[in-house]
Amino acid sequence: MQSPVITAAPDTSIYTALQTLHNHNIRHLPVIENETLVGIISDRDLRDASPSSLTGSETSLLHRLPVREIMSSPVITVHPLDFFDEAARLLYEHKIGCLPVVSNRQVIGIISGTDILRHLVGMLGIMAPGSYLEVDIPDRPGALAEVTQIIKDHGINVASVLLCPAREDGRKCLILRVQAFNLSKVLREIEGAGYRIMWPVATGG
Amino acid sequence: MGKQAGFIYTPEFAQYNFHADHPFGMKRLELTLELLQAVDLLPPEAIMQPSEATFEELLLAHDRDYIEAVQRISGREATEAVERGLGTEDTPVFPGMHRASALIVGGSLLGARAVMEGEVDHAVNLAGGLHHAMREKAAGFCIYNDAVAAIAFLRSKYNARVAYVDIDAHHGDGVQAAFYNDPNVLTVSIHETGRYLFPGTGYINERGAGSGFGFSVNVPLEAFTEDGSWIKSFEAVVPYMLGAFRPEIIVTQNGCDAHYLDPLTHLCCTTNAYSIAFHQLHLLAHRVAGGRLLALGGGGYDWWRVVPRVWSALWAELSGKKLPAEIPASLLEKWSSRAGAELPATFGDSPGCFAPIPRRTEIEEKNVITVRNLLDGLMYQFAKYT
Predict the structure, then answer these.
(1) What is the DSSP letter of A71?
(2) What is the distance in angstroms between the Cα of B87 and the nearest Cα belonging to chain A?
(3) What pLDDT digit, counting tens, does each position of B291-343 carry?
(4) CB-based contact A132 B132, cutoff 8 Å
(5) Per-residue pLDDT tens over the stretch A49-107
(6) Would you state the pLDDT for residue A8?
(7) Cβ contact (<8 Å) for B199 and A129?
(8) Mean local confidence (pLDDT), B5-14
(9) Which of B140, B194, B266 has its CB closest to that of A181?
């Protein structure tokens, strides 16, 4: 989550709110009244309220109208103890761009779709160098342990792990990044233990 | 002007031996030598005997702590090995490893010196090309980085601008890292994308840092890339970069593990791609670097069917000789019982030697996009920095 949070008051003018978004290079402003979250405005709400760049530049209304008139309320929020995947699910289901993080009625942070993506990129281990290994395993206790035990037995360090449902029911796709050059023996043993290697696949000879 | 080409070799290179089952064995080098001698392309006077690199020379590429650790660990199991990247399954500890590794560095230093002093136009050290070793640790079969030592020597002794071209299927990460901030060393590595393959680096956005920004170049190719797309990518990047950079010497790493028979990678090149790359690099050396070329070995894990043929083609190209079409029958007979697979009877692979790759069009398209994105960035940088 990002903290501290840049906010607006209900009677902040739309013009000022637009300037705030622009100056901080952000897209959402929680609206706070008496230290309580009362609404939220997005860059799209503000632009909808603005004149088109093609038709005119009459901005006096933007100076007069407060954000209270166009804000969304009530606001969908998360709690600091909510998991990352809960936040991702809320953003996806409500088709929204951010979630204020609220604790004890106070906005203490904000999390956006971009924050979720950044975290996801890190979790996928995309930045961790190593050899890519993909194994098809049955969805049962011990399968993951057996495969990783083989890797451990060869003294190889695992840089990242991803376990996700496979296309086939009752199967899982195990994706590992391992810090080793020559995987030949490990691959042979994983196959010997009855698992199917999806990558690397043999070429040519 | 001296001899055209020198072949750096000593039977003692064989001491760089992790164990009998390890894929990186100097046996590959001995088979190459045997093949070259069988076709009469390696006269004894072409051979140059290296000596072990000194401690001071190893400091060109490595931290004092690390070299001392290798010396200590040499020949016995030690718990400190793992943090130095040693004692792993990839790079196990073996008796005498310091000396064996220092001898390979000595070979590449000998080559660098012989080329700069005009004793030979081109020097070839096929035991070298250990491009994964880092300043403070071993990695991926490599203990001391002879390429880094040779380039650092060329910088410090001759103040030469050096272009390093690495065609091994794995990213030349150790050499890139050593000169990442140095605008006087251009590193170009063409390899299988790190998305799948060790070491997992070598993306187009790795371009160098500080004043070295723009002088690290990476061409990561898709798994199952074949000759046509590999050559096209090579030709789009390497001549352009070397022409713009104007090195005084070119150092090449000639790992031949991009071959379709190689067991450790997923590229699908044939001897044809290598012949073209060797010829191009040879021409480029004469066109932009006064002919000065130091060629190193590298990966290549099909010892019998691939390495001897490809490295013979490298030596033939650089020594100005022509390979015959066929492998001598006597040698085929001698090798066939030990090779464990049917040996090719010709130096060159024939078209259609492996089954068509199903996703060829997509793979080629993706490589074209990679090269385009790379070049877009490079042209901007070169306009700005040179």
Answers:
(1) -
(2) 9
(3) 999 999 999 999 999 999 999 999 999 999 999 999 999 999 999 989 988 99
(4) no
(5) 888 878 777 778 888 899 999 999 999 999 999 998 899 999 999 999 999 999 988 99
(6) 97
(7) yes
(8) 97
(9) B140
Residues on chain A touching B195 (C-beta within 8 angstroms): 132
Q: How far is CA B88 from CA A155, A181, B79, B198, in A?
A: 7, 10, 11, 15
Tokens found for residue B201: 């680096």
Quick one: CA torsion of B157, B151, B49, B289, rounded to 10 degrees? -90
Amino acid at position B139, single letter: A
The CA distance from A184 to A197, in Å, is 12
pLDDT at A123: 77
Asked if B277 and B311 count as a contact pair (C-beta separation under 8 A), the reply is no
Query: What is the ipTM for the molecules in this complex?
Result: 0.76
Is position B132 annotated as part of the catalytic site?
A: yes
- Please tell me the distance from the alpha carbon of residue B258 to that of residue B224, in angstroms, as a whole number: 9
Inspect the interface and report whether the beta carbons of B264 and A156 lie closer than 8 Å: no
Measured between CB atoms, which of A132, A199, A205 is closest to B302? A205
Q: What percent of chain B has pLDDT over 90?
A: 87
Pull the structure tokens for residue B82.
């793992």
Which residues in chain A (142-201) have CB-CB distances under 8 A to chain B? 154-156, 159, 177, 180-182, 184-185, 199-201
| Cα separation, A131 vs B90, whole angstroms | 12
CA B318 centroid distance within chain = 15
